[in-house]
Amino acid sequence: MTVQTGRRERKKAATRQKIAETALRLFLDRGYEAVGIRDVAAEADVAVTTVFSHFASKEALVFELDEDFEQRLTQAVTGRAPHEPFIPALRREIHALVRHCAAEDAAPIWHMIDESPALRQYERSMRLRHAESLAAAIAADPDLARGTTASRAIARFAIDAFSLSREAEDPEAVVDEVFRMIEAAWESTSPDRRT
Predict the structure, then answer these.
(1) pLDDT at site 101
(2) Could you tell me if 123 and 156 lie in one domain?
(3) 33 and 109 share a domain?
(4) What is the pTM of this model?
(5) Cα–Cα–Cα angle for 110, 116, 118, nearest 5°?
């Protein structure tokens, strides 16, 4: 059964999308530092308070899919098929995120992020938050039976696979290489292998 999205929710989503697209266009045209929230609000024809009701900060405008990515990562663990190993499920999701973020049209955005100390800092804190959410999902799964340290380490490695891949010539090969190490590390923490 599909749940119908109400008119109000659709309107809010459309407004959020319009603000994000407007902000990104302005940032890429004029430079991230040269554009303020008031500029974004005026160009999107909304109030400044409307911008802040959808985005907590100027940096969040660039990382509009932040929450979606975080949910997708945790869903790779919590939403996988019964008895499906979680490492391949997580690898598939990281591959999907990498394909999205390594698309040709994403290059100017990553260049802008790399050039801005504020955006680089936001990205680092976002990656840590994603790793903590992913670690919590791993640790909460009774089928995985690992401790907090193993869950946190594997989650950080997975997030780092994404970060390393976006800088590589062959992003998918990097993800596969890192995930071979992740799988070996995960197996080494198996309760059956402990002495």
Answers:
(1) 83
(2) yes
(3) no
(4) 0.84
(5) 115
